[in-house]
Design brief:
The chain has about 325 residues and is mainly alpha-helical. Helix 10 crosses helix 13. It is elongated, with a radius of gyration of 34 Å.
Length: about 325
């Protein structure tokens, strides 16, 4: 039976499982192995390389519906991604085939209604495969790129969120058919009841899986997208600052040469004015062009005016 309380890092892992045995299904998805004794959640997570805050966020959400704030920067997107990937593998490779085998063992192969139920289950299984494979081919690689500091221009988490549909409709139909139209006696009835119970369990599991994606994973990705946008904006500002700093690095001698050039002097005249050699003038001009990335007299004139090296009114006369 579930115990509605907010679990913390210093609670014992065994207590969480004892209070809420359904959490067992999620332990393997987080990569947590059994055999941890009486250790706390924090100790188990540290030993098994699992982000403790993210683990507790998912646990508290699944147990009592406590959804984190969208601005919770402590949630590890990397840990959530690994958890969801492992959950897909568990559901597709173990749960779905297991229910299929139990249905085959319980239903009569020659019964028309039994064949219909198997076909309905197979259709449901295909829809789940398509749903999860879409996430693995589209959403998960996008998130990996985000974690690497890249953001694609043609996709974002809002696109995924808008198309994240319910996948339990066919399963509900299957349950109703079994309950309403397959009365059995003796052992067969026990087998069918046990299988039906398993179907209810996987429906609940899938519902919880989707809720974790919507309430925790999507907001965490959205926050990561915002971080990258901020980083990109900061990078652009840094480029502007670096460019400005480059301009400010122009020496006083180079400023004098810029003024002479704007006034129409040639290299020899500049050398005579400043008492330096022509070769030195040429070297300074190369440095000016490299620093400012300006190679025309008009560009130098604009630079000189913008940086108050010359009087604009004198140029316009």
């Amino acid at each position: 039976m579930k115990q509605l309380k907010l679990y913390e890092a210093d609670d014992k892992m065994i207590d969480i499982i004892s209070d809420n045995y359904s959490i067992l299904q999620g332990l393997s998805a987080f990569g947590i192995r059994l055999g941890f004794g009486d250790k706390t959640v924090c100790e188990v997570c540290q030993e098994q390389d699992v982000d403790c805050h993210t683990f507790l966020t998912v646990v508290n959400f699944l147990i009592n519906g406590y959804a984190p704030k969208g601005s919770d920067e402590r949630i590890s997107v990397k840990t959530l991604l690994a958890y969801l990937r492992a959950s897909h593998q568990y559901f597709l490779d173990f749960q779905l085939p297991s229910i299929r085998r139990k249905l085959e063992e319980t239903l009569s192969s020659g019964d028309e209604l039994g064949g219909l139920i198997l076909r309905l289950y197979d259709a449901y299984a295909r829809s789940i495969h398509q749903h999860m494979k879409y996430e693995e081919k589209t959403l998960f690689p996008y998130v990996e790129a985000l974690l690497a500091g890249e953001q694609k221009s043609n996709y974002n988490v809002e696109i995924f969120s808008k198309h994240h549909s319910d996948t339990t409709t066919r399963l509900q139909e299957l349950k109703h058919i079994i309950i309403k139209y397959l009365p059995q006696d003796g052992l067969t009835n026990h087998q069918l009841t046990a299988t039906l119970f398993d179907i209810y369990n996987i429906e609940e599991w899938l519902c919880n899986h989707s809720k974790v994606e919507d309430a925790i994973f999507v907001p965490a990705i959205r926050l990561h997208e915002q971080k990258i946008k901020t980083m990109d904006a900061s990078s652009r500002i840094s480029q502007i600052i670096r460019k400005t700093e480059s301009q400010e690095a122009i020496s006083e001698r180079e400023k004098e040469i810029i003024v002479c050039l704007v006034q129409g002097m040639i290299n020899k005249e500049i050398a005579e004015r400043l008492y330096i050699s022509v070769n030195t003038v040429i070297t300074h001009r190369r440095n000016i062009a490299r620093k400012l990335q300006i190679h025309s007299l008009a560009g130098l004139t604009l630079y000189a005016i913008a940086n108050n090296l010359i009087d604009r009114n004198i140029i316009l006369r």
